[in-house]
Design brief:
This protein has 205 residues and is α+β, with helices and mostly antiparallel strands. The protein is 22% helix and 37% strand. It contains 6 helices and 10 strands.
């Protein structure tokens, strides 16, 4: 189900955590001071990129990879809830009220043949521009994107770990990337991290 997320924990809407306590949970931290005199601290929590500035904490990365250690496995609704609780525990703050500015929904389709064999059967899509690459197909809009590609080939090219149960399998990866107007897409005033566990969100996707 869910893969990459961009999460935004605003200090205007949530309790302000003690900065050093959060930073102590991160690896590879660095400090940046900008020309307008604002500052931020960046670091990593496993695969997630975390930014702590004067007004918020932003967290970007694959929730599935954070939970499983890989992003071949996909999160169920219960596992999504468990992953959010795990992230909250690891950071020491309740992250569930964070707003979402990007959401990737994905799954793997086991195929008999190599995924590229099926590409010619993936035709046009109304109001999307279709872009064919050697190993993938994109359907683009300004606010969202559909993507089909060979997951096993991608893992080998990027040197990502392939779990044992997927070794030797033909995997056609499907991803829906919503990177704008998420609230409008789900017809909500604001989409929060905790909403990803709701039946309504699952049915919409």
């Amino acid at each position: 189900m869910y893969d990459t997320l961009h999460m935004f924990y605003s200090f205007f809407d949530n309790p302000v955590p003690e900065k050093n306590q959060v930073l102590s949970k991160l690896n590879k931290t660095r400090f940046t001071k900008y020309s307008n005199s604002t500052t931020s601290h960046q670091g990593k929590l496993e695969n997630l990129k975390v930014n702590y500035n004067e007004y918020s904490i932003s967290i970007k990365g694959s929730l599935a990879k954070y939970y499983y250690g890989n992003n071949f496995n996909t999160l169920t609704k219960q596992e999504t809830k468990d992953a959010i609780e795990m992230l909250s525990d690891d950071l020491g703050i309740n992250i569930s009220n964070s707003s979402i500015s990007r959401l990737d929904f994905s799954t793997n389709l086991n195929t008999t043949y190599k995924p590229t064999i099926y590409y010619p059967f993936l035709g046009t899509l109304t109001r999307f521009s279709r872009l064919v690459q050697p190993s993938s197909i994109y359907y683009n809009q300004s606010s969202k994107r559909l993507l089909f590609y060979d997951k096993s080939k991608w893992a080998k090219q990027t040197k990502n770990h392939i779990p044992n149960e997927f070794i030797g399998e033909h995997l056609l990866r499907y991803e829906l990337v919503i990177n704008k107007n998420i609230n409008r897409f789900f017809k909500k005033d604001k989409v929060l991290l905790k909403h990803l566990c709701e039946d309504y969100i699952f049915r919409t996707l």
